[in-house]
Design goal:
By secondary structure, the chain is α+β, with helices and mostly antiparallel strands. Helices cover 27% and strands 15% of the residues. The protein has three helices and two strands. It starts with 11 loop residues before the first helix and ends with a helix. The structure holds zinc ion.
């Protein structure tokens, strides 16, 4: 779903060495930086997405992606 050309988080694997609790995009499974992620408030929880496209997919079918 995510276009690698516009995906801005190429250094995430590097960041994960230092931060153990990283949000994960529930749609595409990519680990994110909190600073750069697109955030949606859902059922009182913050959910992080790598891009608007993933956020929109989640908003359409939240049950499919939330566990
Ligand atoms: Zn994504």
């Amino acid at each position: 779903m995510c276009n690698p050309v516009t995906f801005p988080l190429g250094n995430i694997k590097y960041l994960n060495i230092f931060f153990h609790h990283v949000p994960v995009d529930p749609v595409c499974g990519i680990e994110l930086s909190e600073d750069l992620a697109t955030i949606l408030e859902h059922d009182g929880k913050r959910i992080y997405f790598c891009c608007e496209g993933c956020k929109k997919l989640f908003e359409k079918k939240p049950k499919k992606y939330s566990k």
